[in-house]
Amino acid sequence: MDSKFLTGSLEMLVLQIAQEGETYGYEITQQVMKRSEGYFELKEGSLYPALHRMERRGLLESFWEDKKTGRRRKFYRITPQGATTLVEHRKEWKRFVTGVNGVLGMPLASGG
Q1: pTM reported for the whole predicted model
Q2: What's the first-to-final CA gap in the chain, in angstroms?
Q3: Which residues, listed in sequence order, are joined to residue 77 by a DSSP beta bridge?
Q4: Rounded to whole angstroms, how far apart are CA atoms 91 and 96?
Q5: What local confidence, expressed as pLDDT, does residue 54 receive?
Q6: Is 20 in contact with 13 (CB distance < 8 Å)?
Q7: Nearest CA to 75 among 66, 86, 84?
Q8: DSSP string, the chain
Q9: What is 3-97's CATH topology?
Q10: Cβ contact 83:19 at 8 Å
Q11: How far apart are CA 3 and CA 35, in angstroms?
Q12: Which residues are within 8 A (CB) of 55 and not within 5 positions of it... i.e. 6 or more apart?
């Protein structure tokens, strides 16, 4: 997997996971890996800076929660602005895939 493709899609993937419920960094990495059937493997060095950028931009908000084990975990939830941004990312992704498939002579992408 060329990391440039993941870098351009990371925000969309994280927002999608966060839209489905409050989540934390490790859980995001596991969900992305599972749903991509191992194709995307997020590294801490790219995920956490992206989470912090998204938080600064108002796409995510975070909070700390103490676990029964005594460990604190930072959770993230999507904001209304983040949900709007996800819708736009998904539209742009669909246009991108359709355009690339057209150039490659492949069937048009469905779904969205």
Answers
A1: 0.85
A2: 22
A3: 61
A4: 9
A5: 97
A6: no
A7: 66
A8: --HHHHHHHHHHHHHHHHHTS-EEHHHHHHHHHHHTTTS----HHHHHHHHHHHHHTTSEEEEEEE-TTS-EEEEEEE-HHHHHHHHHHHHHHHHHHHHHHHHHTPPPP---
A9: Arc Repressor Mutant, subunit A (1.10.10)
A10: yes
A11: 17
A12: 61, 62, 76
φ and ψ at 77, to 5 degrees?
-135, 150
Structure tokens given for 56:
């600064």
Which class for 27: exposed (0-12), middle (13-18), buried (19 or more C-beta within 10 A)?
A: middle
Alpha carbon of 7 to those of 4, 16, 108: distances in Å? Answer: 5, 15, 24
What tens-digit pLDDT sequence spans the chain (112 residues)? 555 666 678 999 999 999 999 999 999 999 999 999 998 888 888 899 999 999 999 999 999 998 777 789 999 999 999 999 999 999 999 998 899 999 999 876 555 4
Ranges of each domain in the chain? 3-97
The letter for the amino acid at 94 is K
